[in-house]
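Predict the 3D structure for this chain.
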Amino acid sequence: RPMPSVDILLIAFFIGPDTVTKYVFNTYVTQLGLSVAMITGSAAAPAIASLLASNNPTAAADLIDKTKQSVLFMVSLFASVTLLLNEHFVNIWVGPQFYVSDAATVAIVLAFVQLALIRNDSQIQDASLDLKRKVLVGIASSGLTVALGAAMMSWFEGSIEMLLIAIVFSRIGMTLLYRRYVQELRKRPMILPLRTCVLLPYGVACVLLAHHLQLSGIIPFFGFATGAVLFSIAVAFFCCFDRQSRVAIWAGIKRRLGRL
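Done. Predicted structure below.
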């Protein structure tokens, strides 16, 4: 699976191992989010494959929609928390000298969101067992990432922000094609609810608040982080799930609480 390590290889080659160390510390939360998103997608893949094999496209499309909503929820949660708290998290964990920059954090989050959604579409395509197109697109995208990264570093030497932006741009084609391939499996239009657009201004608000946020010490950090995570969960829950899914999830939560 070459994609997740392409960024580290490019940073090591074009910028240096010291920057790789900083990058690893700064992407700890997003790497965790990527793992959670992939586990979520993997859990649904066998059921999607079974529905597709039994020629039940309506049920398969419904399950694909629910899976994508769940992954988007996880991605939105980890992205917003990273935008808001990454600097303070790194400062407390390893020290301020290891924090890259606010611009790099935004680029890291963009790359994380894009890669998580690509991975989810890839997992759904795996369920169809039609892998040839996906593999060819992945190989071409990896080659384009290396070429565009090299070109960007010739203009902006040593800029991790511009290298990450190059990686994001090089994967746009993969993002669109994988989404199209999933659309072919669904056999019906895939329309995100309008409230999903709220996630963009919320992310901008997180960036602006993080710039003015002052947290000195572990206790203030964890206190604020707890509130921020809970609020981000509420925002992502409202924006990422449709009404039917929200009602079902809330009913499930109440049932579980009732058993305690």
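The CA atoms of residues 87 and 99 lie 6 Å apart.
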